[in-house]
Write a structure and sequence with these properties.
The radius of gyration is 26 Å and the shape is elongated. α4 crosses α7. The strands form five sheets. It has an eight-stranded mixed beta sheet with strand order 12-11-8-13-16-17-18-19, with helices on both faces. A five-stranded parallel beta sheet has the order 2-1-3-4-5, with helices on both faces. It is an alpha/beta fold. It contains 13 helices and 19 strands. The chain folds into two domains: 172 residues, 3-Layer(aba) Sandwich (Rossmann fold); 206 residues, CoaB-like (Rossmann fold, 3-Layer(aba) Sandwich), CATH 3.40.50.10300.
């Protein structure tokens, strides 16, 4: 599945600075970008395909003659949201400026209609050569973002303009190009996701249909906007998440415990988890035989949000409501009774929304008009909810 606005082709030129792009790839992944590495054939003398495949988790090709049946120069171009070439040698810059297409990377440059950034790295005399200067001017005139290299020590004893910039500098410029806002920098966001499960015996439990997709999308969106994110995940897959503190739980009691520990450290709490309303009063140590499984006595679980409301202070609380009738009436009731600032409510009749990549519903904000949400990706809804949370935070 394509991550909306997050697919990046990382082109790697044949310079010694290629090894530094390994760290660049990792840091981009930390920010939620999905990376496909396309090295030039000569760059493999510095960093091999096995390294790029291990770091990116994706296959690596360098020539249009590899995996021809997939038409890689078109399929990759259509999938990409951004193209970042780092490092770019004088030769690679010259070939791109001339419109050459003699390997997969230069084919992709011509075939893709996405924002492109080039990070040069070369000897100072090559960077300052009139031919390179003219080629860089040509690329900038065509809309490429071309960073100036840094001044510093290069290979051997040489010092001058041509050094590969630091990873943080590249990412800052890249995100300025991509428009990825860092408006949550310095903000601690606590998010719950998934559905709690209440054991009946060692093999059975009371649960719900929540997949955790919306909560995970919220955690990724908050991280990408600069927040320090803690995700309390109930029975959902989180192994691929990077740059997010994940606490795995199973039951409502476990979630309650960790919420209590983490709440004082957050600025924004987003309760997207589907918390079981009740749990079995008695949990059997052994598997209950089918013939004996006739009734289950239930005990009501605590209302986790209502418990935290008394400690709210200046924090912003965002909740979710999954209803099958009287959606807005229930949303407004919960907004008031739980001390929420924002609540998102949707119709889950027939199991709708659960496990899907899209959602639709209504955002209810305290003292503001309701906002109808037509079918959108859960990624898009996440950023919309974060926008409202930021406004409430002030």
């Amino acid at each position: 599945m394509k991550l909306q606005g997050r697919e990046v082709i990382l082109g790697v030129g044949g310079g010694i600075a290629a090894y530094k792009s390994c760290d660049l790839l990792r840091r981009l992944q930390d920010r939620g970008y999905a990376i496909t590495v396309v090295p030039t054939p000569s760059s493999l003398n510095f960093v091999g395909s096995a390294t790029w495949e291990a770091l990116s988790g994706r296959p690596v090709t360098t020539q249009v003659w590899e995996s021809v049946h997939t038409v890689p120069h078109i399929s990759l171009a259509e999938r990409a949201d951004f193209l970042l070439i780092a490092p770019a040698t004088a030769d690679l810059i010259a070939r791109i400026a001339m419109g050459r297409a003699d390997d997969l990377l230069t084919n992709l440059v011509l075939a893709s209609d996405v924002p492109k950034m080039i990070v040069p790295a070369m000897h100072p005399s090559m960077w300052l050569d009139p031919a390179t200067v003219a080629n860089v001017q040509t690329l900038r005139s065509r809309g490429f973002v071309v960073l100036d290299p840094e001044v510093g020590r290069l290979t051997g004893k040489d010092v001058g303009a041509g050094r590969f910039p630091e990873t943080a500098t590249i990412i800052a410029n890249f995100e300025e190009m991509t428009g990825q806002s860092q408006d949550l920098a310095g903000v601690n966001v606590l998010i719950t996701a998934g559905g709690t499960r209440e054991p009946i015996d060692p093999v059975r439990f009371i649960g719900n249909r929540s997949s955790g997709k919306q909560g995970i999308a919220l955690a990724i969106a908050a991280r990408n906007r600069g927040a320090k994110v803690t995700l309390i995940a109930a029975n959902c897959e989180t192994s691929q998440l990077r740059g997010i503190d994940v606490i795995q739980v199973e039951t409502t009691a476990q979630m309650q415990l960790h919420l209590g520990e983490q709440f004082d450290h957050c600025n924004i709490l987003i309760m997207s988890a589907a918390v079981a309303d009740a749990r079995p009063t008695h949990v059997s140590d052994g598997k209950i035989k089918k013939m004996a499984l006739t009734t289950i006595e239930l005990t009501t679980n605590p209302d986790l949000l209502s418990e935290l409301a008394s400690r709210k202070g200046n924090r912003v609380l965002v909740g979710f409501a999954a209803e099958t009738s009287d959606h807005l009436k229930e949303a407004r009731r919960k907004l008031d009774s739980k001390g929420l600032d924002v609540i998102y409510v949707n119709d889950v009749s027939g199991g709708a929304i659960f496990g899907q990549d899209t959602t639709m519903g209504t955002i209810v904000v305290r003292n503001e008009a309701d906002i109808a949400v037509k079918e959108v990706s859960k990624d898009a809804l996440s950023n919309t909810l974060l926008d409202h949370a930021i406004r409430q935070l002030g």
